[in-house]
Amino acid sequence: MADGIGVYAISVDSVFSHEAFAKELGGIPYELIADFERTMVSDYGVRRDDVAGYKGMAKRTVYVIDHAGVVRWVWERSKDEPLPDYDLVLAEAKKVADS
Q: Model pTM greater than 0.90?
């Protein structure tokens, strides 16, 4: 993306799964990162080990991270909010990009 701003999706699925997912969607405009060893989900504290069948999976989470690598905004899935407000995510990302 422009100005060194990047959008990345990270999941514990394999690279092959990501390729199939992107192909099914007809391509996607961001990079998919495979965290197959679950390092990032553990480091960010979003690894699920609380429910049988989800062990090692990631909680759906959105981070806005600034150019210095500082987490500036976080959204995490909840029962009340299973999907993020995408307009809010974009607004928060724009704030960080403009700062």
A: no
